[in-house]
Write a structure and sequence with these properties.
Distance between the termini: 149 Å
Number of helices: 20
Shape: elongated
Radius of gyration: 46 Å
Largest sheet: 7 strands, mixed
Strand content: 5-15%
Length: 543
């Protein structure tokens, strides 16, 4: 029995890419010479170049696919180039083109100056054998001129192939340099579009809230940051940038480290100055993180990270700028109400901020204030004679007394030098404790219940003390202009409440002083000049 064999159909052999130019029979795998097969330009950026290639092929109602190729025979020089304007940038050598060569005139042939060349069909030429027998060959000079003309024609043809223009629905190779290029029509339109986009961009920048749009107006800058102007902001920012070398490690549950890291990491959305500006805006406005994130174009988590990092950094660095001093190099910078107290170090007072009601009974017992009749936290603020904040205590519950806060503030007590002076209100009953350290406490006199009024000396002394102590009330009032302290403080912010109040207190030192010392000094000088020119009677009249 003959075995039946199944005939397996063989797969067609892939012969490679084929040139898509009409009339060209070149095919990859069958070439006897080395050729390259190029794909049509791909992508949106090469859309215009692809159209030029399609028009050069001259195939009606045809769209090239990803498998269509053009062989290297159709490029000048036998190779495609990627330089715009070069001879091989666009295919320009096709079967339907004919490179014309000028024929030699009969007069030149009869004169014997040029050897006649018979015209061949395949664009190749060679001297006629019959003519070689009748006419002598060309001289070296004639051959050089002929070669020079041939090179010049090739350069002109290569130059003309660089320009393509559209006419009657088809793209042809430009043979005249006077015809306009397609880029001459596109460039003016693109330039106009760029100008419109730049104008629109400048208008949008003016609408967006940023440091660049606010810094020009001092009034707006003070409204958003509580600093007088952009010059003060730049001075503080440069000082802080020098300390941390322009880089802050974001807070990750520990104290902020301003040591620069060697790892570059991801580029930050805001610059050093913009992050500082963001912190000032949040302290001044008291807005939520979502609102700040919308203004600066960053995420809410990024705002929280930046704010917490800068709070720890500013809390640590700003308090080092203002220290307690007993002597001053320029006494004219101290108001007159403080000059009568030698070795005055600080004027102290306490203030309270409202907080949310605590969840536990013990915590609420510590935060409830009998003076405010609500849950509060309490801070002690110290002011130097030159009207700057030089001390801010830790946060205490509203139940704590002024005496308790003063005596437990070791950072304040330990900085007081011997024989120094402190001015406070009547509630600071710590005279004996400070006197044991050699520190004098000045408070207004007590009238008591046994008499109806102060004596003349006590009234004058209390008036002088009150005129000096009133400035600490004005300082505290300025601290409260940061609206983040005006609203009820959340329990979730208890970890950064001390930093918030401390930073707000030290930032007001960069504002204009609450007493215009220059104007007062000018007025005192005018009064002294006036009194020197008057008589003794007029002096008593003036007093």
């Amino acid at each position: 029995m003959a075995a039946a064999f199944a005939v397996r159909k063989q797969k067609p052999i892939y012969q490679g890419s084929r040139c898509c130019v009409p009339g060209c029979k070149n095919r990859q795998g069958t070439d006897t010479v080395k050729r390259s097969y190029y794909k049509f330009p791909q992508g949106e950026a090469n859309r215009h170049l692809r159209r030029l290639w399609e028009a050069s092929v001259r195939r009606a109602d045809w769209v090239p696919s990803n498998y269509d190729r053009i062989c290297s025979d159709h490029f000048v020089g036998g190779k495609r180039t990627h330089t715009k304007g070069s001879a091989g940038y666009i295919p320009s050598v096709f079967p339907w083109q004919k490179v014309c060569q000028s024929r030699t005139s009969k007069t030149a042939i009869q004169a014997g100056t040029v050897t006649p060349v018979p015209w061949r069909r395949h664009d190749t030429w060679s001297p006629s054998p019959e003519h070689d027998q009748e006419t002598p060959g060309p001289s070296n000079r004639q051959i050089a001129f002929a070669q020079q003309r041939e090179r010049k024609k090739q350069e002109e043809a290569r130059e003309n192939s660089r320009h393509v223009w559209k006419e009657h629905g088809h793209d042809y190779v430009e043979t005249s340099k006077e015809k306009p290029s397609i880029y001459d029509e596109e460039l003016p339109r693109l330039y106009k579009k760029i100008q419109e986009l730049e104008k629109e961009n400048s208008q949008l920048k003016q609408r967006v809230f940023s440091l660049d749009t606010v810094k020009e107006c001092d009034k707006d800058f003070q409204r958003y940051t509580n600093l007088p102007n952009f010059a003060v902001f730049s001075a503080v920012s440069d000082y802080l940038k020098k300390i941390c070398k322009g880089h802050l490690k974001y807070w990750r549950g520990q104290e902020t480290d301003c040591t620069p890291t060697k790892r570059s990491g991801r580029e930050r959305s805001l610059s050093f100055e913009e992050e500082f500006f963001l912190v000032l805006v949040k302290l001044k406005s008291g807005d939520f993180n979502q609102q700040i994130a919308g203004r600066f174009g960053i995420s809410t988590s990024q705002v929280s990270k930046i704010f917490t990092t800068w709070l720890n950094f500013l809390h640590r660095e700003l308090r080092l700028l203002f220290e307690m001093k007993t002597s001053w190099d320029k006494p004219e910078t101290i108001p007159e109400c403080f000059r009568r107290y030698d070795r005055l170090v600080s004027v102290i007072d306490c203030t309270e901020l409202q907080v949310e009601m605590a969840g536990t009974l013990q915590a609420r017992k510590e935060t409830y204030s009998n003076y405010k009749n609500r849950d509060t936290i309490k801070f002690m603020v110290g002011m130097s004679p030159n009207l700057t904040v030089n001390f801010v205590s830790k946060a205490y519950g509203g139940r704590a007394s002024d005496k308790h806060i003063t005596l437990t503030s070791a950072a304040f007590i330990n900085q007081l030098p011997p024989k120094s002076v402190i001015i406070a209100d009547k509630g600071f009953n710590v005279s004996k404790e400070l006197q044991s350290r050699g520190v004098q406490l000045i408070v207004p006199d007590y009238k008591g219940r046994g008499r109806s009024q102060f004596s003349a000396q006590e009234a004058a002394s209390s008036e002088c003390i009150s005129s000096a102590r009133i400035h600490i009330e004005r300082i505290i009032q300025r601290i409260r202009t940061f609206h983040i302290l005006g609203s009820t403080i959340k329990i979730s912010q208890q970890d950064i409440t001390e930093q918030i109040f401390s930073v707000c207190a030290y930032l007001i030192n960069f504002q204009m002083p609450i007493v215009n010392l220059r104007q007062k000094l000018h007025a005192d000088t005018s009064i002294s000049e006036h009194t020197n020119n008057t008589t003794e009677e007029s002096i008593f009249d003036f007093i």
